[in-house]
Amino acid sequence: MLEDPVSxxxxxxxxxxxxxxxxxxxxxxxxGALVAVKRRFDFFGIMVLALAAGNAGGITRDLxxxxxxxxxxxxxxxxxxSLVAGGITFFWHRALDRLQRxxxxxxxxxxxxxxxxxxxxxxxxxxxxxxxxxxGVITGIGGGVVRDVFTGEVPIVLRxxxxxxxxxxxxxxxxxxxxxxxxxxxAMSGGAILCFGLRLLAVHxxxxxxxxxxSHGTDGTR
Length: 222
Fold this sequence. Notes:
mainly alpha, about 75% helix
């Protein structure tokens, strides 16, 4: 009996999306756990923040596209990936700190991986391209938003140089690639590289979006 090539392609795409999802879960969980360590959280707090940061974006995406229950709840690999990242950070955070700005690197990597996996999974569920781009952005920024809220920070998406725009660019590459008939692996790889590179360049060069001009000082005085 001959195998259906369309079915094989769909299976490969689902596997690739899963791999990117788990990769994003891991690096965002690492990032969340590192923030927890710097905030002097205990072991339980580190694990909670790793779980929240690693899975918030994917859960939000799945709920919005109707993929319920969300994969992060039904698939044990998401839970294990988050816990492993949290455990690595708890025991070896000093080694991670030797990297140059590890939180920034892991956050940018998670943003890129989730932006492209989010947009591709949305397309697989038959939603339109614009929605796929938007949900790619939501998937990418979700973990960072929850992490910052849990630690009492203004979410990075509201204050960083280029953050949501980087996720938007990465997700758009996936959608445009699909419209042009490019292989999903190539489109997702290109989108992830663009998002990751744009985010790091924005931090390095201080790129920022325009802010409203005001005649007031930072303390509210003229």
